[in-house]
Amino acid sequence: MSPRHRAEMLRDEMVMHDRIVALVRDNPRTIPALAEALGHPSPEVVCWVMAMRRYGVLEEDGPADGDGYFSYTLTEKARGEGGAP
């Protein structure tokens, strides 16, 4: 599968925002786990998660696992705002 054009990936950002919020609300997940649940490649999920992290929606949940992946969860601020930035 060839990578999608960056503009296509960014077009999906708001839809993926809501889906990622729903996935991590009660169960922190790693990038690979999110990619599998979303059905999108990890590099795309990394972009979405890092944007959400930058805007205070997601944060790391403890140290990295044995494979070096952090689990991500909603910040307290995002939990109070329903996941909105």
Descriptive notes:
This protein is mainly alpha-helical. The protein has one domain (6-79): Winged helix-like DNA-binding domain superfamily/Winged helix DNA-binding domain (Arc Repressor Mutant, subunit A, Orthogonal Bundle). The protein is built from five helices and three strands; from the N terminus they run H-H-E-H-H-E-E-H. It has helices spanning 6-11, 13-24, 31-38, 42-54, 76-80, and strands spanning 29-30, 58-60, 71-74. It has a three-stranded antiparallel β-sheet with strand order 1-3-2. Helix 3 crosses helix 4. The longest helix is centred in the middle third of the chain and has 13 residues, at 42-54. The relative contact order is 0.18. The mean pLDDT is 88.
Question: Key terms for this structure?
Answer:
85 residues, 3 strands, 11% strand, mainly alpha, 5 helices, Arc Repressor Mutant, subunit A, globular
Topology, pairings included?
Layout (H helix, E strand, L loop, with lengths): L5 H6 L1 H12 L4 E2 H8 L3 H13 L3 E3 L10 E4 L1 H5 L5
Antiparallel strand pairs: 1-3, 2-3
